[in-house]
Amino acid sequence: MGGLLLARGLLEFWLLDLNGRPAAAQFGFRFGNTVSQLQEGFDREYSTDSVGYVLRARAIKDLIARAYVRMTSWEGNQDTRKKWGAQVEHYLDLRFAMPFRVGAAYLQVQHYAERSKSWLRTHLHGKGGKCCTI
Questions:
Q1: pTM of the model
Q2: What separation in angstroms does the CA of 60 have from each of 18, 70, 86, 109?
Q3: Average pLDDT, the chain
């Protein structure tokens, strides 16, 4: 599948080299005027140099130059995204399963787990403080 996406020009890959060694990388795909970042990483040896931020800044600059109007990221820290001026958007997640089947039971367990996490965040964090990541 990756070869097909590459052949159609739908893949984005950015690599930051320092002294001939890869220091950070980002991978994503594009559709229309949107680029969706899928995965990123960096060499911990360069963590104090913020190579991930440097590469992201270069990628954003490149996308602006090519007239892309949107860059999305599916994961990550919301505070970090806001530093880049990102707007948090929500999407609708629809799940279907036949009643009284294994799939329905699985979805029910997921639903209760999500509700439990929400309750714990609300009741354990107190006055907006953070005690843990759930």
A1: 0.54
A2: 19, 9, 12, 39
A3: 79
